[in-house]
């Protein structure tokens, strides 16, 4: 008989650093059927065998350690910290689903990164009457004790004052304060204070009467929820159709049911405006997580969650791991965004992880977008998701009129500037009417590479198979960080005409200033948003109409509402079509649709002008018509024909190694016979091995294999088989690394 789950790996103390230290225990027979990953158990620990609580992270029937040396698990603890246990279960699921080590998976899901010191707020006040304090002040004055004088004057004016204010601004020594406390003259009270990243004055009830279309969605969803139905829902609504208002109403419904909510919003759209809107509706029960928070702020948000102060967590994909006790809903806004897929191991997609979490917590999944991902829309069409639609903009707002400007024609007619004539005329018109303009530069897929205009030489990183990017006075490799000063002459032909390809936001700004010297211009890109607050500052300034024109990259098209913007110019609309992966048309359509949607969000008529060299391309045409359905039909037909997701699933396996020949041999060996393991009808298609499109990074060569199947389970099994095969030859495989990416959204 095969013995099962005889050994358990456990973590004793779950702070982030100690995750690496796992201990192996024997599982006694009577526990073997009941033990599971994520459970809290008690174990004897250390020399004295003190009884400690531990969490099971892994179970197995073998171990590398001599069983005679192992201690036994004592028992299973009931009902301890279910949220934490859930996180460990989740890590286990992610490890198996995406292929990574348990430690990496745990580090991804355990939210507590580092224990931070609690901030204690101390308040000092008088323990004696004001008259007595006045006498003490005079006494101090006569003795020339100026610190005490400042102290008593300040305290005489009323209630308590913070300790740090007294010792800081008023320069009273801490010792003075504590000695007065000992004498019973002062009182010091301590409160625990959480660093709160949200600094809004007050909650104002801001509730709108929903339109019938909105109301219907909210009611239908909550009715299904109460009936126990948990089919994920997709809300497809054009920009400005009132999706956010629907989200907030459903969230409120969840709070009324005593359930908590996780709201995912792409980091880039998580702006002051968005957060304020939620804050106004829900007040202090919301919290946010984003990469701009300090470690202390992040830590405190999780403490607030633990203490039940937070009911709604808003954040990018990592907010999924908020350990709510009674999760009711995971809401993913702008669900098509690529940032929902992790670019590190485990390469999980937030939507899939959310679906898993919902299945273990009984929560619902609600997705929304103006341009749903092909994947979600495909699922909605196949009845795997509920589909809700909002077809009209709220109120008087209309979709903007869209014009396509053909840059080839402009060029042929002698216009060499960055702006087509229709765009420059429209800009002049808006400036005259004191309306606002947004200029959006589509930069996806281009790097400012440095090339020689005489011989065509492109400067490459010596360690990676990629071109170097142009940055002021240096050239940088974005893959390994290699940096080198800019060259003055071409290393191949000695020509002085070697420089970066220029089409950045800065160049646009210069061109705008030249054409319209009086226009006030703001620029938003990686360079102008280095600091934590820069991003919000620029948006606030533009909202306050301190500028006429906002120039920016992707950053400016997400989630902002600028009522005075009546013109959106899209420069280089087709650049993203050159990206080398199969999602290029989808990304292009999404970006253009979102950008166009920025114009005319209030009563004023809006207009968008798309500049392109490929005016006939269907992604550009459909975006101009704001025709999602039409785009979907054309694109899904292509995917079907080519055999790409979501019609079939893809597993990309990237193998790297220092020696190219050995790597090729290893890759060949690894995939030998993989397809044949499966019965014929199940058999996946195996493409490769072949060199990756970037053949080398950081001096490591790269080979890829694509495994294709309509059935995701077939691919997960392929991953397991490959992992096992490598595990068996551990030593020989040491120099190679293996990475799995399911339904990849970028090329390798
Ligand atoms: P989306 O999220 O689809 O872009 P929003 O929810 O932001 O749409 O709504 C667009 C605008 O319409 C916002 O200014 C919002 O305050 C307003 N709005 C939404 N629903 C209503 C409503 N039922 N009544 C009045 N105004 C609304
Ligand atoms: Zn040259
Ligand atoms: Zn490099």
Q: Helicity, in percent?
A: 25-40%
Structural class: alpha/beta
User: Mind telling me the CATH superfamily name of the largest domain?
Assistant: P-loop containing nucleotide triphosphate hydrolases
What spatial order of strands do you see in the largest sheet? 11-12-10-13-14-9-15
Beta-strand portion reads: 15-25%
Cα gyration radius (Å): 30 Å
N-to-C CA distance? 45 Å
Q: What is the helix tally? A: 21
The CATH topology label of the largest domain is Rossmann fold
Q: What is the CATH-assigned architecture of the largest domain?
A: 3-Layer(aba) Sandwich
Query: What is the CATH C-level name of the largest domain?
Result: Alpha Beta
Topology:
Layout: E1 7-11, E2 22-26, E3 40-45, E4 50-60, E5 75-76, H1 82-99, H2 102-109, E6 119-126, H3 130-142, H4 146-156, E7 161-162, H5 163-167, H6 174-182, E8 186-193, H7 212-226, E9 233-237, H8 243-256, E10 260-264, H9 272-282, E11 286-288, H10 295-306, E12 312-315, E13 327-333, H11 350-361, E14 364-369, H12 374-381, E15 386-390, E16 401-406, H13 407-412, H14 421-432, E17 436-441, E18 450-452, E19 469-471, E20 474-476, E21 483-485, E22 498-500, H15 505-515, E23 521-524, H16 534-543, E24 549-552, E25 565-571, H17 584-596, E26 607-612, H18 618-625, H19 628-642, E27 649-657, H20 660-671, E28 685-697, E29 700-709, H21 712-728, E30 737-742
Parallel strand pairs: 9-14, 9-15, 10-12, 10-13, 11-12, 13-14, 16-26, 17-24, 17-25, 23-24, 25-26
Antiparallel strand pairs: 1-2, 1-4, 3-4, 3-5, 6-7, 6-8, 18-22, 19-20, 20-21, 27-29, 27-30, 28-29
Helix pairs in contact: 1-2, 1-21, 3-4, 7-8, 17-18, 18-19
């Amino acid at each position: 008989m095969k013995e099962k789950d005889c050994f358990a790996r456990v973590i004793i103390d779950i702070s982030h650093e100690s995750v690496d230290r796992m201990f192996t225990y024997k599982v006694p027979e009577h526990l073997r059927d009941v033990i599971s990953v994520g459970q809290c158990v008690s174990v004897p620990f250390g020399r004295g065998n003190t009884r400690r609580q531990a969490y099971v992270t892994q179970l197995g029937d073998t171990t590398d350690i001599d069983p005679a040396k192992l201690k036994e698990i004592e028992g299973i603890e009931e009902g301890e910290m279910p949220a934490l246990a859930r996180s460990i279960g989740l890590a286990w699921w992610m490890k198996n689903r995406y292929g990574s080590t348990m430690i990496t998976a745990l580090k991804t899901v355990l939210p507590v990164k580092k224990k931070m010191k609690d901030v204690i707020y101390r308040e000092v006040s008088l323990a004696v009457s004001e008259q007595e304090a006045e006498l003490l002040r005079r006494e101090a004055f006569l003795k020339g004790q100026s610190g005490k004088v400042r102290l008593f004057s300040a305290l005489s004016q009323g209630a308590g004052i913070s300790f740090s204010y007294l010792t800081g601004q008023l320069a009273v020594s801490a010792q003075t304060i504590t000695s007065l406390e000992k004498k019973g003259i002062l009182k010091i009270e301590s409160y625990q204070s959480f660093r709160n990243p949200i600094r809004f004055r007050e909650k104002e009830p801001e509730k709108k009467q929903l339109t019938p279309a909105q109301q219907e969605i909210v009611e239908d969803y909550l009715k299904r929820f109460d009936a126990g139905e948990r089919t994920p829902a997709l809300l497809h609504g054009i920009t400005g159709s009132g999706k956010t208002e629907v989200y907030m109403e459903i969230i409120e419904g969840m709070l009324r049911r005593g359930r908590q909510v996780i709201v995912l919003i792409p980091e880039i759209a998580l702006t002051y405006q968005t957060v304020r809107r939620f804050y106004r509706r829900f007040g202090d029960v919301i919290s946010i997580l984003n990469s701009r928070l300090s470690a202390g702020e992040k830590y405190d948000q999780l403490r607030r969650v633990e203490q039940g102060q937070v009911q709604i967590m808003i954040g990018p994909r990592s907010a999924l791991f908020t350990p709510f006790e009674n999760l009711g809903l995971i809401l993913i806004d702008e669900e098509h965004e690529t940032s929902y897929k992790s670019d590190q191991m485990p390469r999980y997609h937030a939507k899939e992880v959310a679906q898993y979490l919902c299945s273990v917590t009984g929560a619902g999944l609600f997705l929304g977008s103006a341009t749903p991902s092909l994947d979600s829309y495909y699922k909605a069409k196949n009845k795997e998701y509920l589909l809700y639609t909002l077809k009209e903009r709220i109120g008087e707002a209309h979709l903007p009129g869209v014009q396509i400007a053909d840059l080839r024609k402009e060029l042929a007619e002698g216009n060499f500037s960055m702006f087509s004539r229709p765009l420059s005329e429209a800009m002049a018109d808006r400036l005259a009417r004191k309306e606002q303009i947004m200029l959006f530069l589509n930069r996806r897929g281009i790097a400012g590479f440095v090339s020689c205009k005489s011989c065509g030489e492109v400067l490459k990183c010596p360690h990676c198979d990629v071109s170097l990017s142009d940055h002021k006075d240096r050239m940088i490799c974005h893959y390994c960080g290699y940096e080198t000063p800019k060259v003055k002459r071409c290393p191949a032909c000695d020509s002085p005409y070697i420089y970066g390809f220029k089409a950045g936001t800065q160049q646009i700004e210069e061109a705008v200033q030249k054409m319209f010297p009086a226009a006030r211009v703001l620029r938003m890109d990686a360079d102008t948003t280095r600091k934590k607050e820069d991003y919000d500052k620029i948006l606030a300034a533009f909202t306050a109409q301190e500028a006429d024109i906002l120039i920016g990259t992707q950053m400016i098209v997400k989630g902002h509402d600028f009522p005075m913007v009546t013109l959106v110019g899209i420069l280089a609309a087709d650049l993203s079509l050159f990206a080398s992966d199969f999602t290029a048309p989808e990304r292009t359509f999404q970006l253009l649709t979102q950008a166009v949607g920025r114009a005319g969000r209030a009563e004023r008529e809006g207009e968008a002008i798309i500049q392109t060299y490929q005016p006939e391309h269907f992604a550009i045409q459909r975006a101009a018509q704001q025709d999602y359905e039409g785009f979907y039909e054309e694109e899904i037909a292509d995917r079907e024909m080519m055999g790409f997701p979501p019609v079939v699933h893809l597993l990309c396996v990237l193998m790297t190694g220092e020696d190219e020949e050995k790597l090729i041999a290893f890759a060949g060996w690894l995939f030998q016979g993989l397809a044949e393991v499966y019965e014929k009808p199940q058999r996946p298609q195996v493409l490769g091995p072949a060199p990756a499109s970037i053949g080398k990074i950081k001096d490591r060569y790269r080979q890829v294999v694509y495994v294709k199947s309509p059935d995701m389970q077939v691919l997960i099994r392929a991953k397991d088989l490959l992992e096992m095969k490598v595990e068996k030859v551990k030593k020989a495989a040491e120099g190679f690394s293996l990475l799995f990416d399911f339904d990849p959204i970028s090329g390798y």
